[in-house]
């Protein structure tokens, strides 16, 4: 009898599941039919994307509530265990580029939009978002800007509502139209010049190019053609790396930020570089030759370092 009851219960569950699935299929079919009627020119793939977007919008409010609750629990745990969660919202409002004591400029050159597919443009946008977040949470933010901001890069950035109000300077013009040529240093891993310290009141250019090595050496070539100073981070001086030394935009930005905050190069490298880079120190921390950082009062660029 018990076995027969179990069989009946299983059949009921299966029937209920089938009914739910049938209902969901009907609902999905009705949505697809309605979307097809409203947008007769959409392909099946496009309809699928629209339907996915609508489902996300329906769950958006619920997800926001979950995120807020998770953040509340995180703050409560931090207070109970005396853990710092970084600067408060009030402190962040006061921590702006205009009020910052750090005058090191960093701009991302977005003139490579036509060389990237949409997927890589989206990756670049995410990296820029992380650069902004890092700079926004810094006690002394660097002077952060985007140059050649237009085309695909701007179109993808417009997906993020309110970006226009960020504490970032957006320039449609190229960086050489914005900053004095003698104050510009293009960062490129192909450069033969090694940067030993960050210069006060200079602008460091990071190439906004996600190309998976398809255009190797392009940023260096452009810097040479424009006859501007160029240099590379001193990875070889302090680290032994098995992986390639080409870093992402946000990694380069964060390394510059940490050095501007007073960390040594190798401290910044170890903090920022991901484990997959398998970076190992050549010189132990604290040994001679490891304290080259940002010299706030240095206004002259050493001519024997950059060409």
From TrEMBL:
Keywords noted in UniProt: Methyltransferase, S-adenosyl-L-methionine, Transferase
Enzyme Commission numbers on file: 2.1.1.221
Claim: Thylakoid is one of the keywords in the record: no
Known catalytic reactions: guanosine(9) in tRNA + S-adenosyl-L-methionine = N(1)-methylguanosine(9) in tRNA + S-adenosyl-L-homocysteine + H(+)
All copies of domain SAM-dependent MTase TRM10-type, residue ranges: 88-280
Enzyme class: transferase
InterPro entries: MT_TRM10-typ (IPR028564), MT_TRM10-typ_sf (IPR038459), TRM10/TRM10A (IPR016653), tRNA_m1G_MeTrfase_euk (IPR007356)
PROSITE patterns: SAM_MT_TRM10
Listed CDD domains: Trm10euk_A (cd18101)
Keyword S-adenosyl-L-methionine set for record: yes
Official protein name in the record: tRNA (guanine(9)-N(1))-methyltransferase
